Amino acid sequence: QVQLVESGGGLVEPGGSLRLSCVASGFTFKTYFMNWYRQAPGKERELVAFISSAGGGTNYADSVKGRFTISRDNAKNTVYLQMNSLKPEDTALYYCNAPGIGAWGQGTQVTVSS
Description:
Elements: E1 3-7, E2 10-12, E3 18-25, E4 34-39, E5 46-51, E6 58-60, E7 68-73, E8 78-83, E9 92-97, E10 108-112
Parallel strand pairs: 2-10
Antiparallel strand pairs: 1-3, 3-8, 4-5, 4-9, 5-6, 7-8, 9-10
């Protein structure tokens, strides 16, 4: 059974940082690219970043480039999203996902507000 469990969200002031984690199980994690998505209220789900299976390749949405960093630890079946210089427009529910794996976790809420 595939499971994706996100954590690390919270309330942070503009300019602050958070590190999200996603622990995966039920599939061969190290062979899959991994994505981070986010969805704000009233908006469509947006791909924020993805990372290749070995971690050597990454890509980011223009809106987060230079502020967010995706990484992974294949020994721990975990993908991370380091978020710096957070802005109110980063407020959303954040999810991880493996392309081709039809499963989503519950997400972790990130709220950026003063």
